[in-house]
Amino acid sequence: MTKDDMKKILLLIGLVFLALAIFLAWFVPSAFIGTPTQSSVPVQIPEKATSDQVAKLLADKGIIVSSLGYRLYALLDTQAGHAVVGEYAVTPGVSYRSLARQLALGPTRDEITIRIIEGTSLHDMGLELTKWQVAERSFLDLVGDAKSSKPFSSALRSQFVFLKELPSDATLEGYLYPDTYRVWKDQLPLGFVLKLLNEFGKKTEGYEAQATAQSRTLHEVVILASMLEKEGRTADEKKMIAGIFLNRLKIGMRLQSDATVNYVTNAGRARPTLEDLEADSPYNTYRHDGLPPGPICNPGQDSLEAALHPTLNGFYYYLHDNDGKIYYAKTAEEHKANRAKAYGE
């Protein structure tokens, strides 16, 4: 071997080592050290994404400088090829190793608390969920919307026994049990709805058999309970009013529930106006016989119990004065006298 050949070999080795040093100086800090920034960037990893696709996505988002560097790192670390589908908050500049670990573990899940009070309607729930970036329309598409004649999702019907026999146009109004729930934010709205339905099933276990023994359906009990939730102030009042409503139904007398009118008008008035009472809706029990076609809110336990176990009485009328005192009457004349006591009319 000549001196020139030796020089060429040494030069080649030197160039290789120089290239390796440059590569390591470029690759190692990004792969194992990183220079993270203060803010994070949202990243959505699609289903079955390859390491090459993840690398391009991260580079496009400005989280890594080079997609090539991440692809090379994936040859050393198998976790980089197993990104879990989901949404992440990723800090730009973190090392490839940290990124691979984060994406392999899956997205961090936020557990949130949602309180639903007795008497809440589906629309009220939809508005509450908008606080958690859930579109009200997506919620109503799932649970139904009586005002736009949209039934609840048929996929839910087979999952719960108490939903199977509901009318084809029914919504889930009345069946989402009010309580305080903890739910994963990324499961909204379906995970939330399933929790409420499960709780309804637990709280009303045995109700259907009891309703059948009274020649009623569970749906009729829930409809009545939803009205009692709005009409009664205490558990005892609700039981008395339940008895009054059943007395009216037995003789074919209209229920004339102000709560059903408010459900139609959304006015929320303690005493509906004459115009309110003329609202054209099957839910308006001043204009239509019998129970409304569906519940008007989601009742709590007191109202459900009152609807199933009413207090038997001989009254057909009731009203509250402005202080909340309730008056009962057997005849229209007695009711008129009570109105004079309550309102000075």
**Low-pLDDT regions:** none
Estimate nothing, just give the exact number of structural domains: 3
Percentage of residues assigned to helices: 40-55%
Ends apart, CA distance between termini: 123 Å
H and E order: HEHHEHEHHHEHHHHHHHEEH
The assigned structural class equals mainly alpha
Characterise the protein shown here.
The chain is mainly alpha-helical. It has 15 helices and six strands. The strands form three sheets. The chain has a two-stranded antiparallel sheet with strand order 1-2. Helix 5 runs antiparallel to helix 6 and helix 10 crosses helix 11. The mean pLDDT is 89.
Task: Give a quick rundown of the structure.
With 345 residues, this protein is mainly alpha-helical. Helices cover 48% and strands 8% of the residues. It folds into three domains: 26-105, Dna Ligase, domain 1 (2-Layer Sandwich), CATH 3.30.1490; 111-203, no CATH class; 207-314, no CATH class.
What are the salient characteristics of this protein?
6 strands, two-stranded antiparallel sheet, mainly alpha, 15 helices, 8% strand, 345 residues
Secondary-structure blueprint:
Elements: H1 3-33, E1 41-45, H2 51-60, H3 67-76, E2 86-90, H4 96-105, E3 111-115, H5 122-129, H6 136-143, H7 154-157, E4 180-184, H8 190-203, H9 207-213, H10 218-231, H11 235-251, H12 258-265, H13 274-277, H14 301-308, E5 317-320, E6 326-329, H15 332-343
Antiparallel strand pairs: 1-2, 3-4, 5-6
